[in-house]
Amino acid sequence: MKKTKSIIYILIIISVVTFAYFKMYQSNDQVRVSKELLGNKLTLSKIYKSNAKAKLIKPMDVTSIGNKIYITDAASSSINVFSKNGKYQFSFGKRGTNKEQFLYPYGITKYKKEIYVADFQGNKISVFNESGKFLRPFKLEGSRNIQTPGIIRIERDKIYISNITTGSIVISDLKGRNLTTIKYAKDRNDKISGPNGLAVDKKSGDIFISDSNNSRVLVYNENGEYLYKINSDGKRYNFQYPRGIAISKTKLYIVDALASKIIVTDLKGKYISEFGQMGNEDKNFVLPNGVYVENFKYVYVTDTQNHRVKQLN
What we know:
Elements: H1 2-24, E1 30-36, E2 42-49, E3 59-65, E4 68-73, E5 78-83, E6 88-92, E7 105-111, E8 114-119, E9 124-129, E10 134-138, E11 149-155, E12 158-163, E13 168-173, E14 178-182, E15 195-200, E16 207-211, E17 216-220, E18 226-230, E19 242-248, E20 251-256, E21 261-266, E22 271-275, E23 288-294, E24 298-303, E25 308-312
Antiparallel strand pairs: 1-2, 3-4, 4-5, 5-6, 7-8, 8-9, 9-10, 11-12, 12-13, 13-14, 15-16, 16-17, 17-18, 19-20, 20-21, 21-22, 23-24, 24-25
């Protein structure tokens, strides 16, 4: 009996130590690239480590041009660039308020061969070429100022800007002329709160917004008119804190930060599959944030507190 109790005590101690390890875990500034056939068994492709110049401390969002991926890092106030095989290429930006600097780079998107970066704390959006050279600021016309921009996306020659603190999405053309602003769900009594992610259906133009603080995804037509919402289905998935979202043809990829997983549904919210759980193993996440789909094939996810980006397919 005493032996059995000792074994139980040892197992409890191991469980406590393991949990503490997960909470305190810090990776060695690396980018881990893995591949997944969503809905099937995960297969690990490769693991790549960054060098001293590419410190992925708090990766927030990701996009790609050609054979390069561009990752915003809020903690180092820079953009880290890697080749598709995971090799570090270069970085641009540093902490500051000059035109080529950032305070808290958050969202990132591309338009042709240009890179748009949203500086959440700097209240600005800056445009760079694919080599990281500053080209120009992006400004809204008139007296409208860009405030706390989070995720940004460009589709159909329009830019979609999430204003996280005011709970709104600003839509303008690429010259900064305002087209519409989205603030509410079904009516004015149903306000958006904490829009930490957005995506646009290339085919229909429908706009998908992760209403993080209300634990749901809201859907609007291309004119910004409310269509429907996607809530937890109560069976296969329950949103805890949805953040980044992306669309690939008929699939919707939803990053649930607190659940540390990616939920895949159809465009109406019907469950398809999911991937991930809390932890620091290659298949796990800790507070994932941004998601980006490339050419309807590869899915990139920023695993923020594990200091890495995963490539899935």
